[in-house]
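RECORD TYPE: inverse folding
INPUT: structure tokens
STRUCTURE:
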């Protein structure tokens, strides 16, 4: 019988250290003064890394939302 090859599930992330009622701001560039382009709720998961992190900032996406998270 043929062995089925399985593709590992992609690595995804979730929002942490954001209290209920607050949001994680995603910014246009890796800078706390940059414009907020999207927000993620504290329950957000399945967040994808979309590039290389710069210091403590990482480019992420979830659905149609994308930006830099700290």
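DESIGNED SEQUENCE:
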């Amino acid at each position: 019988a043929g062995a089925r090859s399985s593709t590992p599930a992609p690595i995804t992330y979730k929002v942490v250290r954001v209290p209920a009622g607050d949001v994680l701001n995603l910014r246009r560039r890796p800078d706390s003064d940059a414009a907020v382009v999207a927000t993620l709720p504290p329950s957000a998961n399945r967040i994808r890394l979309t590039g290389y992190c710069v210091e403590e900032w990482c480019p992420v996406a979830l659905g149609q939302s994308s930006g830099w998270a700290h």
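NOTES: The chain is about 0% helix and 30% strand.
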